[in-house]
Structures are given as structure tokens and as C-alpha cells.
Amino acid sequence: MFGLFNLMGYRDQGKPTADIMRETADLVRLADDAGFDIAWFAEHHFSNYCVCPSPLIMAAHCAATTKRIKLASGIVILPLYEPARLLSDIGMVDALSDGRLVLGVGSGYQPFEFDRFGADLGESVERSEEILDMIEEAFRVPVFEHQGKHYQIPPTHIAPRGPNGVPEIWIAGDAPHLQRLAAQRGYSVIFSGRNEGVDYMVSMRQRIDEVFREEGANPNTTKMGMLRFACVTDSKDEAREFVENCRFQVRLAANLRNRHEVMEDTGMMQEIPLENEPDLDQMIENMIVGDAETCAEKLVDEIRRVRTSHIAMFFQVGRFPNVQAMRSLDRFASEVVPLIEKEIGPLDAYDPMGPVTDAA
Questions:
Q1: Exposure of 44 by Cβ count < 10 A (0-12 exposed, 13-18 middle, 19+ buried)?
Q2: Segment (H or E) for 289
Q3: Hey, which CATH number is domain 2-349, 3.40.50.1000, 2.120.10.30, 3.20.20.30, 3.40.50.1820?
Q4: In angstroms, rounded to a whole number, what is the distance separating the alpha carbons of residues 116 and 356?
Q5: What is the pTM assigned to this prediction?
Q6: CA 58 to each of CA 33, 160, 164, 258: distance values in angstroms, whole numbers, following the listed order
Q7: Of 126, 133, 145, 294, which one is least surrounded by beta carbons within 10 A?
Q8: pLDDT digits (tens, 9 = 90+) for 251-295
């Protein structure tokens, strides 16, 4: 049910990349010990929004220091890769993790990144579909070939491969064309809750359900996940500190999406406020932030109304100290999860596709 999402950005100029990666690995080990299902690693390029250009490398690194938690790319930006190399990397990480790789994929959304790769964002969906064709075929049979519009690969054997064939595939599902692709291929979907509250997540779920039905697919048989900011704390000051850092991340993401990015000579992205953004108090209300009882109450409401089967949470964002993020994660596992299970029963037996519970 619950996962850890690692964005791996920084807000203070000069913070060593090695420290960010070390702190991330510490969080993943704690999540593994705490019983979290999946640890996700973002992929972004060329800015302090995220210093992880390869979620597969981070997954491979953490595979060596964890025991049971699944390790997920969140997400691999497919059209930025040379397919044959990507296939080999996927197979190797899946083998190193003994089949624990979850392959989160997407077509990308930041023009800033595509420009610097010399890639055409307008072709991203077509290229992503072709690469997905290759992923499915390459790990299904010993030898595959591909002759498509954008890529041609002669008969090829991908030697490194995990124990279970094609890895579990999740699609980043904010965009309708990706939701449609998931419906057509039977992939799981994960979308971002951003800085919004439960009503936004319900509307996203309804939109995805509608797309699935249009494609003749049953959304109730599909795993549906969402990304949420989370901080378990009894301190109002700590809650505001965390949410202020969440706002920083949301602003950078929106500016990169909408071509409003401004990079300083230092390489840092300027934080530009968004139009009509909620204030910090409203963000605290929207997000999974507060004491254990408050966080549990919010999550029970979201689980029931959104009918989600997976919630991946940001515990560390911006300059929020990792020691506080680890304390929050630990409290989530030891205090929040038992309160949730008291309301909905054991998580491993909970059926998110049951009857929809309307808002009170």
C-alpha cells in the first residue's frame, strides 16, 4: 500500500550530491525495515530540482543494501534513452535486485530537459510507445527485433534479465494520452497529488476511470497509485517548515513544465511563485501533514474515496533535514499505519476497489 518517493533535489547551493544520495539510501533502508512496499527514484536533468539522472542506477545501488522492498524508477523518461542500452540496463538492475525492479515509465514533460538532449518533445509519446513495445518483447522471448518509425533494431538478445521476465510496469498518469496507453496495455497508473487535497485526487481518479472505460478496460482491475507529501509531526513549526519546502518543489516543477524556468549563473533554479497557489495553512490542510491521528484520518479518507492501491510519499523535500524526514517516516510506520489498519483492516487484505465512500 505505502511507498517512499525520493525526488533528490536540493535548495541550498553547494550541498554535495554525495550527501543527497547517501541520505536517500538511508531513507530507503529505513523504509525497507519499516515494511514499506516500494521505494521510488525520480529522474530529472540539469537542475537542482532533482540530481538523479538515472533511477535505475539508484535502484541498483539500493538493491545491495535492502532486503525485500521493491525498487522503482519514478520515472524513466523513455524518449531520452537509446533503446538497446536501456533494455540492457533494465535487465541488469532487475537481475541485481532479484526481481524487485518496478519499471515506472513516462514520456517526459520538461522542455528544458528535451532541449538539452536535442530531443523533440512533440515525438515523445510515439517514441515512448515504441520503446514499451521493445521492453515487452525483449524480456518475453530470447531474441527480438524491432522495425518502427523511430527505432530499428536487428535480431538481438538482451543477455542480462531478471527472474520474472517483463518487469512490473507503471505509467506516470497525469496526461490523458498516458492514461489511454495504460488502459490499452494493462499497466498500473500513478499520478501526482501535487499540493492539492482529496477532492483533486478524486477528480483525477474519475478522469482516469473514464479514459479506461473509453478504451474498453475495467479501471477497477488496475492498480492505481498517487504521490503525496507527508510529514508526521506534533510541531506546528515543523509542519510549516516541511510544507514551505514542498511549495518550493511544486513551484520548480510547474516552472519547468510551463517554460518559466529561470536558471541563475550558479546553476540554481529561481523559485517563482505560482498564480493562485494555496497559502501554507491550506497546503498543510491539503497534505498528509500533522500528528499521527491527523495523518491517519486524512489517509483513510483518501484511500476510501480515491480507491487507491498505492500511495508513494515524499518525506524529504528541499532543505527539510533528513533526520526529521527519517523520524517522520519511522512515526508513519509505527503510529500512523496501525491507526489506518484500525479503520480499514489489515493493509495486505484491504480491497481498494470496493464500494466508493462519499465525502461526509
A1: buried
A2: strand 288-290
A3: 3.20.20.30
A4: 45
A5: 0.95
A6: 18, 18, 21, 28
A7: 145
A8: 999 888 888 778 888 889 889 999 889 999 999 999 999 999 999
